Amino acid sequence: MTIPLNTATGNYYIIARADADGQVPESNESNNTKATAIHIGPPDLIVSSLSVSATSGADLTTTLTVTDITLDQSGTGPAAPTITRFYLSTDATLGAGDVALGFRNVPALSPGSSSPGSTSMPVPSGTAPGTYYVIAKANADSSTPETNVTNNTRSITIVIGPDLVLSSLSAPATGGAGLPVDVTDTTKNQGTGSAAASRTAFYLSANAARGAGDVLLGSRPVGVLVPNSSSTITTTLTIPGGTPAGSYYIIAVADDGGAVPETNEANNTRAVLIRLSPDLIVSSMTIFPTTVSLPAAAGSPINVTETTRNQGAGTAVATTTKYYLSTNPTFDALADVCSPAACVPCWRPARRASARRRR
Fold first, then answer.
1. Cβ of 293: how many Cβ atoms within 10 Å?
2. What is the CATH number of the domain that holds 172?
3. 170 and 261: one domain?
4. What residues contact 326, with CB distance under 8 A and at least 6 apart?
5. What is the pLDDT of residue 351?
6. Per-residue confidence at 344, pLDDT binned at 50, 70, 90?
């Protein structure tokens, strides 16, 4: 059967009538009909499902794979073949300034049936990193009249561009001024676009936040990173000489200098605690002889054997251990003397490690 031309859009019934011409005398002439509802009019095409994934290569280009389901809603008319198009937008509403990414062909659809499909499309070159919307529009070219033309679009958000972070950072718990320290970091691109070559820098700071007064210790190069790839390197740095003892932080900064435009510039740092805290003691000392007779005592040699030890958490640079003559066991910088005027200076340099010396 064919629906008559110019039939107005609306809800109708198709009624079947047995013995429609009354050719057969029946015991009951009132039960000859049966009706089924039908909607007569154009189709109603919508995008019932939409998802997007992104991949990127070493050439820094990003490709979007858009998966959609275009549906002709139940209760409407059948749809002729149409096109579903995809757009890149800064908001969820399709507008004149949105960028067309691509399209896919949708076959003829009967009411209630759908067409799933995946379409791969490159992101236009020069697209700045950030948050965007991918908008899919069914019957994008308006090739088929529809019951409702206001429900043809569907949108989904996507973040486009690289995002460099420090996924791990480690360093020795202790160190010393003027001494080397090995720092291992993993710089990762957790974004959807490839990151160009950059550098990760390391700073010595009094706190865990990067600030203007932090001291640059060094840096290391990071090559091109495709999405979800990373670079792990151990870098030997040197704590500046003269750095006072105390607790510090080594802060690693990904993309130091901002050479790579990123979707998030606020997550590029990571800090690790390091203590520069030596503690030097004289752990043992013996003297021979312990008794000297006057008047020869003033010029008599005394043999001192002592051990200078670092019992602290940090490494100590080279220092000097001196010997003083005192009337009591407590050191007094004013009253105690290092040596009589007639004697050679009584001191010796101590090495970085525990040192034992006899004089």
1. 8
2. 2.60.40.10
3. yes
4. 332, 335, 336
5. 55
6. very low
